[in-house]
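Summary for the lay section of the report: proteins are chains of building blocks that fold into shapes. Here we show the chain for Origin recognition complex subunit 2 winged-helix domain-containing protein and then a coded description of the shape we predicted for it.
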Amino acid sequence: MVHTQFKWSWYHVPTFAPYKVECVFYPLILASGGHAQTTKTALVVLQSLTPNAQSVFRVLAEYQLANEKEEGMPVSSLYTKCRERFLVSSQVTLNSHLTEFKDHDLIKIKKHSDGQDCLHIPLVPDALGKLLQELA
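The coded shape description reads as follows.
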């Protein structure tokens, strides 16, 4: 066995620092850099996801480009559109894609004025359009 050929050592070294302090040096994917850098970073993340996840992101991005004045796309509307296109089979599947997007800071969730959760991609329209072209 390979692991028996080495002399491994383990040290417990807690920093006792709050999580915010520990992660302050890790920049957010879409919050740092210029538009070109954020587009490249988002593209790398999206390419690592499944084709269905990419398609769900595309639906959200196309909606955002077509409705720039709105606060975002309601989750229920995204679910309906994705279900019509056979991209998701249940709300659970959509939620797993959305969690992946949130974990990589590809989307933000806001409360709409009517209380619904709305999804928003934090990119300017030009960068979002370029991202969709490169994703295709």
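Put simply, here is one thing we learned. The chain has a mean pLDDT of 84.
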